[in-house]
Amino acid sequence: MFGEWRPRAIVFDCDGLLVDTEGCWTVAETELFRARGLTYATADKEALIGISVPAACALLADLFGDGTSPEQVQRELLAGVHEVVAREGRPMEGAVELMALALERLPTAVASNSPRSLLDQALEVGGFTSLPAVTVAADEVENPKPAPDLYLTACSRLGVAPAEALALEDSATGVQAARAAGMRTIAVPTLRGVDIGAEYTLATLADPRLHALLAPAA
User: Fold this and answer.
1) Which of 25, 63, 81, 89 has its CA 20 to 30 A from that of 35?
2) 117 CB-near residues (< 8 Å, 6+ apart)
3) What is the pTM (predicted TM-score) of this model?
């Protein structure tokens, strides 16, 4: 992959990439629909994957059409997600091993479209023995993904130019943000078989090509 190019830093997304929390979000989102007598359709889930919590809650409030404000939807959703993540969150295939390898070999960060409280919780339940010092949450930048702010902030804190860094993502929104920042991109999509616009698409973080990419240049 990427020919002779090797990353000088790596930035991971979190939800759905490092930690299997997308299913937790789906459980909480489904409950919001059920409480209103509505069915949570696949198209609804597709519209929500990867977008920021405020954007998701504004979309949900509009879909519900029952007068519930986006702020109230956000309070309900976050409470539900916290509860389900605590019970069901687990690392994605290959995530623990790849994070350990990245920390050993490169400046490493996490840039997440989740707020800080959920990012910290997801990483805590993910089973990682070590985590990067640089983690950036959506409520710590002016504009969340698909804007490049999260990735630009992560690269700045790592002291690496975005063009020299690799972003690993699971959503089209995240890939768009990384590419807008000027980074190289690899995707492990939450929705299998969907092209989300990355330069390369893999099935899992356990793919040996990822480990090879992080090896020192010959």
Assistant:
1) 89
2) 78, 82
3) 0.89
Find the Cα–Cα–Cα–Cα dihedral 20, 105, 212, 162, rounded to 10°. 80
Count of alpha carbons within 13 Å of 109, Cβ hemisphere only?
A: 25
**Cα 99 to Cα 108: distance, rounded to the nearest angstrom:** 8
Provide the total of helices (H) and of strands (E) in the chain, helices listed first: 9, 6
| Count of CB atoms situated within 10 Å of the CB of 75 | 12
- Does 146 sit behind a cis peptide bond, omega within 30 degrees of 0 on the bond before it? yes
In the numeric block, the tokens 């400046």 are attached to: 107
Task: Please list the residues that pair with 136 across neighbouring strands.
Answer: 111
- Does position 145 have pLDDT exceeding 70, yes or no? yes
- Mean pLDDT, residues 1-11 taken together: 94
